[in-house]
Amino acid sequence: MIVITGLRAEARIASAPGVSVFACNGNVGLRAQAIKRAVSAGAPAILSFGVAGGLSSHLTAGDWVVATGVISGSQRIETNNEWSSRLAERLPGAELGDIVTVEGPVLHPIHKRRLNMATGASAVDMESFQAAVLSDELGIPFAAVRVIADAADQKLPPAAALGLRPDGSVAVGAVLRSLLRKPSQIPSLVSVTIDALIAFRALLRGRDRLGPHFASLLRPELRGGELRGDLTESLDLSTPTDFALQVGCGCRVMI
């Protein structure tokens, strides 16, 4: 099983025996050869997993979206229907809808509304469509499941768009320099951090429900409680100060 994420923090949550995880920060192409080698070695499917920005107005931080399809520009690729249904069954209340993938940050509610009107998508990220293209090329099943970290009406500060490195880790210095130049961003950044805390707690809970291989049709599954061990302890989500914030496409948090 291959899981593609944006952030290292998401990759840590996704990890399990038999799961190869690639944190791509919006550029799946940089890891494409390694992903292809994993498929050649027997990985049977690709999943896009992590946090995303909300586009549907009713979605709030911590809500799950199971993709029925992924979109980029005028192109749309459907996810594996049976696998998506199994994911949704494990995540009560999850929205079934499309995810649109874009190249850069979506910081302003106006831009989110435009994306929603143009595509009908429920959420926006930077990896899912690229992952689907690669899955299609390799002839293996694809699914995508994301947690909303910033709602459609949440405006994100400029500092949040600056700090991700290509490997999905956070360039904290870039964020801090932006805050020093414009301290008025700090209240907005605090609000975003609180929503991110909610999102990552939902991501942890949902990861447990999905089982080691994400409800894949191709691998036997354990049910909730058997997977995570002490991961919750290793990812201390107790205080917002344990986070370095970064927004890629919607809110991104590096733990």
Keywords for this entry:
disordered C terminus; alpha/beta; 10 strands; Rossmann fold; five-stranded mixed barrel; 255 residues; single chain; globular; two-stranded antiparallel ribbon; 8 helices; 34% helix
Notes on the protein architecture:
The chain is α/β, with parallel strands linked by helices and 255 residues long. It has a single domain, classed as Rossmann fold, CATH 3.40.50. Helices cover 34% and strands 22% of the residues. It contains 8 helices and 10 strands. Strands 3-7-6-4-8 form a 5-stranded mixed beta barrel, surrounded by 5 helices. β1, α1 and β2 form a beta-alpha-beta unit. The protein is globular.
Describe this structure in a few short sentences.
This protein has 255 residues and is α/β, with parallel strands linked by helices.
